[in-house]
Amino acid sequence: MSDTFRFTIDGVEVTGTPGQTILQAAEAAGIWIPRLCYLEGLVPGGACRVCTVKVQGRFQAACAFPAGPGLVVENDTEEIRELRKQVVEMLFVEGNHFCMFCEKSGNCELQALAYRLGIASPRYPYLFPVRQVDASHPDVFIDGNRCIQCGRCIRASRDVDGKGVFGFVERSRDTRVGVDARTGLGGTSLTLDDRAVTVCPVGAILKKRVGFAVPIGERLYDHRPIGTDLERRGA
Ligand code: SF4
Ligand code: FES
Known about the structure:
By secondary structure, the chain is α+β, with helices and mostly antiparallel strands. It contains five helices and ten strands, in the order E-E-H-E-E-E-H-H-E-E-H-E-E-E-H. Iron/sulfur cluster (SF4) binds next to helix 4.
């Protein structure tokens, strides 16, 4: 195609097309860039910074930065791997993530990313914030302890479901995901077939009555590290 262009990621020439982000072009070329708030089919949020790369020597979010001709992108360098580890470690200490008791364990993108990045335990002190569980909905619950504020549920509900059930409330370290009903999740229009119910990368939004249907040890990331399904070249 005449409107395609070439640029490099870690010295490897890849092809981009107009409208693609760096993350999308990398993925099309079989190069995995770690991500948490990005999900195919949703508008990029640029919230988590796990996808940070260097473009022409400057840090950028690969999920939001447009690919372009001649760009020089660094992805899998020691400096960037270290930065991503720090981001993921901060996410762990900012919430209450007890993987051994969590229904999402083995399917959790945060947990899988920590394994893939070689994180044994966070270097920062745990904050143990006080967070709420909202189980007022008959079919779905939201556990604020596990929320990493990626915003996927907000974008899915707003842009895919056309409802706007979820939204950020409060500020700074008190920021949390709220719902559009004073009575909690049970008072919203959320239904089980909403896209927002299935986009959470961690165990913060889960369906009721299906917990542990797939045993620990037989889950997605129990079989293969996160990202390996997207890799055809080393990342
Ligand atoms: S509830 Fe899940 S999808 Fe929503 S912001 Fe928190 S971690 Fe992201
Ligand atoms: S995946 Fe790009 S900022 Fe979160």
